[in-house]
Automatic annotation (TrEMBL):
Entries under SUPFAM superfamilies matching the protein: CheY-like
PROSITE patterns assigned to the protein according to its UniProt record, in alphabetical order: HTH_LYTTR, RESPONSE_REGULATORY
Residue ranges of every copy of the HTH LytTR-type domain listed in the record: 143-247
Name assigned to this protein: LytTR family DNA-binding domain-containing protein
Annotated keywords: DNA-binding, Phosphoprotein
DNA-binding as UniProt keyword: yes
InterPro entries with a match to the protein in the record: CheY-like_superfamily (IPR011006), LytR-like (IPR046947), LytTR_DNA-bd_dom (IPR007492), Sig_transdc_resp-reg_receiver (IPR001789)
Organism (species): Chryseobacterium terrae
Superkingdom to which the source organism belongs: Bacteria
Upper lineage: Bacteria, Pseudomonadati, Bacteroidota, Flavobacteriia, Flavobacteriales
Keyword Phosphoprotein in annotation: yes
Modified residues annotated as 4-aspartylphosphate in this record: D55
Gene Ontology MF term list: DNA binding
Length: 247
């Protein structure tokens, strides 16, 4: 049995996740914790689980605070409604990052991903498993954006490009432009590099939306949906750009 802990301060969300996890007979829920303080105390007094499902924003702080105080070998799947913590979660080598409301297929995929790191013959120690996680690039599949007082989930497959303007990074879709809380450097690290390519300091483009490529006098890309600015491939990136197009 895989010992599992939930860290979630919203009782309805915790109950829903507990019901969803009950569909996986090899998972054994050993604790349901509600705060940073409670979690730190529990981890100090109890045997650590193999898997943790943790919300990020808790009533008394961020769950990151727990793991800065407590060293654990458990693998963490973060759950949250806020996109601004995505990059920090990735940098902490989490197994996965699930945006609320959690979909059953996304949860199942995250659990299967966790199981793929567990050796069947116990020949790989926990430190080696951590190294395997570091080598696997986790890609961002959706982004939460704010529209006034509302939140909207945008799939990265719907985004033709990301671009920076006046120190803000925007994402372009067929319908409109949305501001994000990422930097282009951060996005470069977590986007699927088979689909997305940073052509210059201002733009990251999605290959699925390339309409035309001009090669003279310089490389210029036209997308099906893009802002008014021209998208030019910087000279030092041209070779990598051409290689990316055919890979």
């Amino acid at each position: 049995m895989i010992k599992t802990v939930i860290i979630e301060d919203e009782k309805p969300a915790a109950r829903k996740l507990e019901r969803m996890l009950s569909l996986f007979p090899d998972l054994q829920l050993v604790a349901n914790l509600e705060s940073v303080e409670e979690a730190v105390s529990w981890f100090e007094d109890n045997e650590h689980p193999q898997l943790i499902f943790s919300d990020i924003v808790l009533g008394d702080g961020l769950s990151f605070d727990i793991f800065e105080k407590i060293s654990t070998k458990a693998f963490i799947i973060y759950t949250t409604a806020f996109d601004q913590y995505t990059l920090k979660a990735f940098k902490l080598n989490s197994i996965d990052y699930l945006l609320k409301p959690i979909m059953e297929e996304d949860l199942s995929g995250a659990i299967e991903k966790f199981k793929s790191f567990i050796p069947s013959d116990q020949s790989v120690n926990s430190q080696e498993i951590k190294q395997l996680i570091k080598k696997e690039k986790t890609t961002l599949s959706r982004i939460l954006v704010k529209i006034g007082y509302n939140l909207k989930i945008v799939q990265t497959s719907e985004i033709s490009c990301f671009f920076s303007e006046n120190k803000i990074v925007y994402l372009q879709t067929q319908d409109r432009v949305y501001p994000s809380e990422f930097t282009l450097d951060e996005l470069t690290d977590v986007l699927d590099d088979k689909k997305f390519f940073r052509v210059n300091r201002q733009f990251i483009i999605n290959s699925d939306y390339i309409k035309n490529i001009h090669t003279s006098p310089n490389y210029k890309v036209e997308l099906n949906f893009q802002p008014k600015e021209e998208i030019t491939v910087s000279r030092e990136r041209v070779k990598d750009f051409k290689d990316w197009l055919v890979n």
